[in-house]
Design goal:
Layout lengths: L4 E10 L7 H6 L3 H11 L7 E9 L4 E5 L4 H9 L14 E4 H11 L8 H15 L1 E4 L4
Parallel strand pairs: 4-5
Antiparallel strand pairs: 1-2, 2-3
Helix pairs in contact: 3-4, 4-5
Length: 140
């Protein structure tokens, strides 16, 4: 007999730093058990924000799937910035190289709706543009 799914929740936690709290309470899972499982699974990604999709079942058991670090976080790290531009159309706050763009696109490929690396690069370039980050030598 299959378990009945009660809720599917998308959350983000620092790698190795999930703690019981209101976000997890709304998921309806055993919080200490989830935190220890998540923290063990993400210890190697220390310092990154890790998105997770939690599937909670009727009996309080759960499954979770880890996703790749958000593109915006990776772009900020590559440009050595703390935040993006308040107005991306008029204020550019940083630059990255095409090599940085390609490495981010290759890393994000499993989570993107792109058929190849060039398509993924276009998606990440759009995110960079909306954040006020320029890409040296890249033409859309």
């Amino acid at each position: 007999m299959s378990k009945k799914i009660v809720k599917i929740v998308k959350l983000q936690f620092p790698a190795g730093g999930a703690r019981p709290g209101p976000a997890l309470a709304s998921a309806g899972v055993n919080m200490p058990q989830f935190c220890s499982a998540f923290n063990d699974a993400t210890r190697d990604k220390a310092g990154d924000i890790v998105p997770v999709i939690i599937t909670a079942y009727e009996d309080k058991s759960f499954n979770f799937v880890l996703k790749t670090v958000p593109a915006s976080v990776m772009l900020l790290k590559a440009a050595k910035l703390t935040k993006g531009s308040p107005n991306a159309k008029t204020t550019k706050v940083g630059k990255i190289s095409v090599a940085d763009l390609k490495s981010i696109a290759e890393y994000k490929m499993p989570d993107l709706n792109a058929n190849d690396v060039e398509g993924a690069m276009a998606i990440i370039a759009g995110t960079a543009k909306n954040m006020g980050i320029e890409i040296d030598g890249y033409k859309n």
